[in-house]
Fold:
Amino acid sequence: MMTTVRSAGVAVWRAGLARHSWSLGVWLLLSALLVWYATLIPVFGQFQITSISKNSLPLVYLAIGQAIIVIAGGIDLSLGALLLLTNALAARFMDDQPFAMVLFIAIILIAGLGVLNALVGYIISVSGVPDIVVTLATGYIWSGFALWILPSPGGGTAPEFRWLFTGAQSGIGGTYVMPILMMMVPAILVFLLSRHTRIGLSIYAIGSDSVAARLAGLDVRRAKVSSYAIGGAMAALAGLATVALTGTGDPRFSVGANATLNSVAAVVLGGVALVGGTGLVLGAVAAGVILIMLNPILSAMGIDPNNAQIIQGLLIAGVMMVGGLVTLLRERSA
Amino acid sequence: MKFQSQQFTILALLLAVALALTACVAVAPEAGGDDMMEEEGGFVVGVSNTLVGNGWREQMICAIKAEATASGLVDSVVVVNRNGGPTEQIADLEGLISQGVDAIILNPTDREGLNAVIESAIAQGIVVVAVDQAVTAEGAYVATNDQTAYARLGAEWLFEQLGGSGKVVEMRGIDGVPADTDRHNGFMEALANYPDIEVVASTFTGWDPSTGAQQALDLITTQEIDGIWTSGIDYSVVEQFQVANVDFVPIVGADNNGFVEQLIQLADAGLMGAAVTNPPAIGAVGMAIALDALTGNNPPHETILTPKVFTTADLDSLNAIYAPDEQVGWSTYVDIKPYTSYNGSADVSACTAPGE
Amino acid sequence: MSETQPLLATVKVAKSYGPVAALQEVDFAVRRGEVHALLGANGAGKSTLVKILAGVHPADAGDLHVDGRPMRIHAPVDAISVGIATVFQDPALIPDLTVRQNLRLSDIEEAVFTHWLSWFDLEDLDTDSLVRELPLETLRMVDLARALARDPQVLLLDEITAALTADQAERVFSLLTQWREQGRAAVLITHRLAEVRRICDRATILRDGRNVALFEPNADTVAADGSSTGTMQDVEERELVEAMLGTEVSDSAAIEAPGSHSLQQQKTPASPQEISFAAQGLSSGDVVRDISFELRRGEILGLVALEGQGQERLFSLLSGDRRPSSGDILVGGSQRRWTAPYDAVGDGVVLIPGDRLLTLLPNLPVRQNLVVPLFSRIRQWLRIPADERQRVMNAIDRLSIDTRAASQVRRLSGGNQQKVAIGRWLVAGFRTLLCFDPTRGIDVQTKREIYALLRELAAGGAAILLYTSELAEIQLVCDRVLIMHDGRIVDEQDAAHATESSLLTAAHGLEVLA
Structure:
């Protein structure tokens, strides 16, 4: 009796492992890269772990937000611009404010951008205009607002707020506990939300098969709007993280455009299929850290910086091709 | 069961990727590892730049490499070069710190945003030199070109040429960029002393040669103009005089190779002009300062280069800096004594760091 | 339980898709304690009615009553909340989630669900398996158990038994019997008339979007012991088939009218010609099973099947779009292995699919659509064939395609679009033509032209396989006809003697009386 129970447990565990092998593989890849990086540089300790984890925060937040939206069958090209908008708002209004006020502003921004992007999701759902078109347009609008709010780099935030994201009030050389906590707490919260609540499962459902979801009696629109709300809130968090990292605001358009592209890359690398319905938020988290780590690793390897982007592209293409090949083999044998 | 085994294949493949990568660990330190050891006092210098595809910045990096090679004190130069803002530059600087470099030369994206990481580097015994633009971090060395003086010296030369009265055009760079603001201030300083000089037009070229050329063509064909001051968009402006077949007026530009060539060759045709230097070799100056600091020579923390003015009145000195083998956009003023130890444009253009 | 108050009723419900009226003034009522069959030929409007009842599509006009009260159902969730649970032909389960997650989504207690699963002997089902990984028949049972767990008053079952084994179907029937005894109701949409007779109490017949008959056998004839069988057992299957077909003048008469003998006369004499195309033991999973036939030059071979009997898959195998799991395709006597339709076209085997817009380039003009197949000839990539214009003009003339209004193919009428789809192969040349329901939704005049063209092509030596859902037209156009049921060829008839009734009977998998 005991053995059957245990073997059933093992079977479930194994099935789960197999089903999410991509996410697992990305985490293994991340571990391998960390080990490798540690051997490339003379010292690997608190400074390096803090550096990697805090510098990854903006991309990881964006990747989580993008992952949720992609899982729901959409894509949001305005996430980078939302990051920019939050960055501008936060740097402008947090400057010289006490910590309590700064925290209050941060919460308002997270909630506000969640609502703002929910509105975008609602417009997409009602109008039937493809996600990519609407968010491309809103992306330009948010970038414009960001420049309007903060015309040139500047502004600031409270040192305690910087400590929250970086582990140090100066933004550097602090403890790695804070950035890792700030990375994993939202990641695990959104992960649990996506896998263990009705609204989360609805998000998977509409991305997997929106017709079946509707026939099963789900509110497809509500799920879509929710996914965009989470995306907006995560983009706000990413914008706050950039302010905390640098202590200033930087409203340049290219920053937002880059961030959007990287979030899509992280989502794809993290095993979230762009067709929607599959993949785990946690995979995108690991992929986000990997993308951030590539730069110091390639630099430490002495690779010409002009080739670094090529290698980054090759890595993404290579991993995706391996994935595609496996899928193809599986379909053929099925 | 078939499904499961298939999915384990994915797992196995990804594991293989991971293993393959870890396998590289064994090889990698051999390739680039030796510079970790400070054997013959050879230094490792990191360079951080966040504007890619810009000629001036590329020449700056090449000057840094050339100076490193010429000094004989540097083992390797690690360049971290990508487009980005303070967020990316902080990450890049932390990466350089992690690599254990002895000195960092950076062209900063922000005056204050990088202070914490710079101070953290200094606390770990790394010499940090900000070039081209300043930072306020304590303990950091700063080497910049004096942008206010750049404009003031050029404008003063122009106003003197015009005998203190006439109609001039101010062709600026990009609105809101610190360097443009500083230069405009310098221009206004000079103007304050010449009450009879009238500024009939002020344009923003965006530091783009074709934009500047179009603006210049419009101006010289529609207005009476006695002189032009440019923020570095010079040779394409001179070309417009030839295109429109209008007589040259005195013009102030930068030490761009194309402009210097025009000043030399068109002097007989009546072209009068001044090339004011804004050298990207400030990078090499930064390298020299870093090496001074590393070898215990205690250089000053702030170095501000006052621009030199090369005019058509002294063709020999123009000929001395002219680099016939280089592009029109090449900044000809590369030898900045007493800082640089390489030999002219050819060395900089070779763009080789030690060990390359 | 009131006899006068139907549990679920529609009053004069109408629904159109564009210009096509799918339902017109349909009155349909389901009583408590009955299993009601909803029958009709392909395209009669059954699935449209089910979709309206289930809240998938709103009705254009008419009312819905639940328990005598008028109800507005805008979305599936509304239908569920008033006690209507539907099991669709394609299970409404999310493929990338586990069974358990699907239940959580629908807010269904797992215990209730497993109770119903055990009714179908599926209590061992691992609810942690992904829906995508489960076989179709299991999914239908899961979908049904989920519907039952919602504790509905009315169950709508669309072809529920189609993928089930006899044993599982048996369990569904016993469930329905119990359901009836509880005073609830079920609507059964099925092609299996034997099931209707066995289990149903009443039957509504739809034809061309209208309800044309209601079979309501006298309730007194129910077996006195109240046994599990429905009262429909007293109705002959042939009566049902006749009701589905109707006695009105059909399109076929209209097609024949103008030149009554023309089509018939064009038929080729029964002299044996060489075999142009053949299938030997073609199979594809469980969908297409062991299909063999020969297609001769100059022959039009008809194919008839009810919806979902594997005909789509068969055509995708024959046209090179999909590789068979076993069996061979022979062209001109030699075996072919195709990896893409490109290869099939190279062998002169071309397909005209049911959905015209699938093959046409809707935003391009007629001329460009006609020359597309020529592009695939490598030597002509750069050079436009000298006679291209002439060939195109010939095709347009021959098909009398009305090109006046249309710079874009999508603006053409359905009939003209179909002509373009055929015309491109006239331009490119072919030997074997596979036509999948080419006259669906096309007016009578164009239908006639298309059939005449097919006969003309056959007379010119082409071999044609024609699948059509319009049974009456088989006799007019075809030489022989194959009947497909459940993935197999179950019958072959001489087209000259094939009647709608004999074809439909065979298509239902029934024995045709001589």
Remarks:
- Chain B has two domains: 41-146+280-306+333-350, 147-276.
